[in-house]
Specification:
The chain is α+β, with helices and mostly antiparallel strands. It contains eight helices and four strands. It has a four-stranded mixed β-sheet with strand order 2-1-3-4, covered by helices on one side. Helix 1 links the parallel strand 1 and strand 2. The longest helix has 27 residues. The protein starts with a strand and ends in a 5-residue tail after the last helix. The structure holds glutathione (GSH). The site of glutathione (GSH) has 11 residues, from helix 4.
Amino acid sequence: MELWYTPTSPFARKVRVAAHELGLQSGLRLVETNPWSDANLRALNPLAKVPTLVLDDGDVLWESGLIAERLEALGRSHRLFPAAGPQRWRALSLQALADGACTAAGRLFADENRPVNERSEAMLVRFAETIKATLDYLERTALVDPPTIGEISIAVLLGYLDFRWPNRDWRAQRPGLAAWYGRFAARPAMLQTAHL
Ligand SMILES: N[C@@H](CCC(=O)N[C@@H](CS)C(=O)NCC(=O)O)C(=O)O
C-alpha cells in the first residue's frame, strides 16, 4: 500500500498513527508529495489532498477517517472504530471535532503567514476561537484507553498545535488534557510520526 502524504499534514499523521496502532506501518510505503502542485496526486485523487491511500489492488481512498477505517478493516478488528453503538458514535464525534479544529488550525496558520492586506482579521479570530473552544471542550471530556480514532484525532490536533505554535501554551488552563497528551505523545505511534 502507498500513503501519499506531506510531513506537515495533521490528517496524514492521523492515518500514520492509526496504521502504527494497528500494526500495519511496515506495509505502508510513504510517498511524499506536494498537494498544491503534484499532477500525479490529482490523477489518483480528484481532490488532490493528503492523505491519499493506494491499496495493493489499485483502489484509491481519500479522507483520513475513511482511510483509517479501511486500514482497520484489513485486519477485521474494531479497535479504533468501535462496533455499532454508543462507543462508536462517541469515537466518531470526537474524530469529527478534532478534524474540524485541525482544519481551523491549518487555515489559521496559512492566514497568519499571508501579507496583512490579504488576510481577514475576522477569520483569524474565528479560527482561533474554534481551536480554543475545542480545547476547552476536550478538557471536560473523558478520553479512553485503549484509544479509538477519536483519541488519535485529538492527539494529532494537539501535536499539530505544538508543531505550528510551540510558544502558544494551550496547556496552562487545561491540566487534564495536558497530562493525557503527555502520556499519549510517548506512544511509539506518535514518536515515529512526528511532524518535520
Ligand atoms: N478532510 C480531509 C482533509 C485533508 C486536507 O485538508 N489535507 C490538506 C493538507 S493538511 C491538503 O491536502 N490540502 C491541499 C488542498 O486543500 O488542496 C481529511 O481528513 O483527509
